[in-house]
Amino acid sequence: MRMETKENTCKNFINNTWVDSASEEIIKSINPANKEEVVGYVQKSTAVDLEKAVQAAYKAKKNWRKLGQVERGQLLFKVANILEENLNDIAETMTREMGKSLPEAKGETARGVAILRYYAGEGMRKEGDLIPSTDQAALMFTKRTPLGVVGVITPWNFPVAIPIWKIAPALVYGNTVVFKPATEAAVTAAKVVDCFAKAGLPEGVLNFVTGTGSVIGQKLIDHPLLNAITFTGSETVGEGVAKSAAARGIKFQLEMGGKNPVIVTEDADLDAAVEAVISGAFRSTGQKCTASSRVIIESGVYDAFKEKLIQETKKITVGPGLNEGIWMGPCASESQFKTVLEYIEKGKAEGASLIYGGEPLTTGEYVKGFFVSPTIFENVTVDMTIAQEEIFGPVIALFKADNLEEAIALANNTKYGLSASIFTTNIANLLEFIDEVDAGLVRINAESAGVELQAPFGGMKASSTGSREQGEAAKEFFTSIKTVFIKG
Ligand SMILES: NC(=O)C1=CN([C@@H]2O[C@H](COP(=O)(O)OP(=O)(O)OC[C@H]3O[C@@H](n4cnc5c(N)ncnc54)[C@H](OP(=O)(O)O)[C@@H]3O)[C@@H](O)[C@H]2O)C=CC1
Ligand SMILES: O=C(O)CCC(=O)C(=O)O
């Protein structure tokens, strides 16, 4: 593939050409399961590179809009087919670059294919509505129109699905894109961009620039030719995106953290609840904004649930995600590994009881990687750091509640409101939960993570700002409405 050079450096993609950065600096992308293995090199691009990418997107926007939604959809079908043909290679690169197990990486890439097909299908759907006018001689309708140049900034935890669920709707609704991936997962992201490149998009429609968040990310957000920005990542960076976008009056969409609760009531199916908590908390090594991180259990079943949870957690196989039979890979990077260990230490220091795991795995097959065991705390109080801050690691806190009201109050006791789940067989309980919980994703007898692509995705409170992503909701963000009135 053209992005490979003798040094395995991924290039920028500007105006349909893979190009070198103006800088000669590169960043190593290493395998978090084996820090001695270099997966690829990522260019530390400069303001000059970014400028070329934005100018290319700006120049392309009129013709891309004029091409029409149907044609744009057809191009996305081609991208989907190319991604599907390259699924194994891309999934393997993802596992090597950010650590998630190969089956999960394959699942995510297949999800990318499905998202592309969903938005390709949008190409054939309506672009507006006919509205009755009070004037018998007039025709009044709405017409969706693209925003123009959209900036896409993505994190490393879903290096295929998140870029695609932002880029595909942006393109089908007629916008051109400048995409800045997370440096940690830029080699995988470049392979996704290559699928778009091979599908034959017109010049300048999708541009890809690697580099640091503080230079390329910030300059992209601040660029005067940008019409909108969609971002997923940390709250700190998200706040900066919001300020800059609001100051210039451009549209912005932020998906940030979560501290997602799971409530287990006395009448719940405990086996199903344990399975969902393990999957929701520990898959992808807990590195999902929808990961379960607080489990609130009614007192009557607390001990039984805890015992089952520990028993099942013991069965988790930790190791390099490419190895057969591995269920949980390493943390995605050394800094993420250190952060998780710091949170575990804080939990202990603030008085929570560590009842399972809590250690870095540093011997034998783990010696070269950033592995940590799945970790469970109990006796956690709401004022503790591990009860309030997003850890983004395989760590859960157990809480006891006397009744559903107390459980929901505990669930709502954070600044976040992304996903929340309940395990119950009682209809009154689940109806109460749906109404009272502060969360954008409300899950009944299902894990907190693993959303469906055709439904709106996003949270309340500090988790999200702007309109929802995915499904039909994406249209709200990526288009603007013209109300047309024609008098005969
Ligand atoms: N909601 C979610 O899905 C995610 C949440 N997080 C949370 O954030 C924490 C830190 O993760 P991290 O990867 O550092 O997240 P960041 O928010 O730093 O990174 C997300 C994206 O923003 C870019 N970026 C960084 N700084 C700026 C800036 N000043 N202006 C514009 N873009 C910028 C990054 O680039 P670069 O990679 O080059 O730094 C990356 O592409 C995690 O521990 C987790 O709690 C992280 C990832 C996803
Ligand atoms: O739960 C999911 O599948 C999506 C999670 C997500 O979007 C994220 O962690 O950023």
From TrEMBL:
Pfam families documented for this protein: Aldedh
SUPFAM superfamilies per record: ALDH-like
PROSITE patterns for this protein: ALDEHYDE_DEHYDR_CYS, ALDEHYDE_DEHYDR_GLU
Key words of the record: Oxidoreductase
Keyword Translocase: no
Keyword ATP-binding assigned: no
Domain Aldehyde dehydrogenase stretches: 18-484
Residues the record marks as active site: E255
One Gene Ontology term of the molecular function aspect: oxidoreductase activity, acting on the aldehyde or oxo group of donors, NAD or NADP as acceptor
Assigned protein family: Belongs to the aldehyde dehydrogenase family.
The protein's name in its UniProt record: Aldehyde dehydrogenase family protein
Organism: Neobacillus mesonae
